[in-house]
Here is the input.
Amino acid sequence: MGLPAPKHKMTLEDFLAWEAEQPERWEFFNGEAFMMAGGSDVHNAISLNTAFALRQPLRGTRCNVFMSDVRLRLAESDDLFYPDVFVTCSDADRARRQVKEDPTLIAEVLSPSTEAYDRGDKFAAYRRFAGLKTVLFLSQDRAHVECFTRGEDGRWVLSEASGETARLALPAFDFELALADLYRDLPDAEASDPAPVPPPSTPRPPPAA
Here is the structure.
């Protein structure tokens, strides 16, 4: 999830040099920087549960599960993202240390302040990953998951699961996810979206070429 900075187009090289000086984490999309908003404890718990639920059945396979401290790069446009959770089964990605480029599954935990971005431009960018088979959107305020699966014809098909007794089939994998596992042991406090972290009032210019 991310919050847009004031529009200031830059190249990837400019962005990487600029981001290295920032205290926050930023995504880079369509030539612009998007600051990563702070997540709630509920958001963090659902992300951790999802990563663990995916990691268990994938043990011993070619696939690895990563969380939002690992960056995902869309090579054709040099866009950079920090998905909440993603899976890659790529031999090339296993050799990459800082950035992965070939996801099979991406999961985002939705927050009111960033849901439009996650579902809109970001989802459109995700669909350009050639090997991506599954995108999950997980609600933060109830046990509900939307699963978008790319078919052999390239079309994306939506399936949904609701309630902690429900299970969600992942057609791209040979297993299901139990929503009880994804929403297990959440903080007692009612889930609420944190106040958006405001971007800088004036974007810092990128380093001179």
About this structure: The two ends are 30 Å apart (CA to CA). The mean pLDDT is 86. The chain is about 20% helix and 30% strand. Residues 41-58 form the longest helix (18 residues).
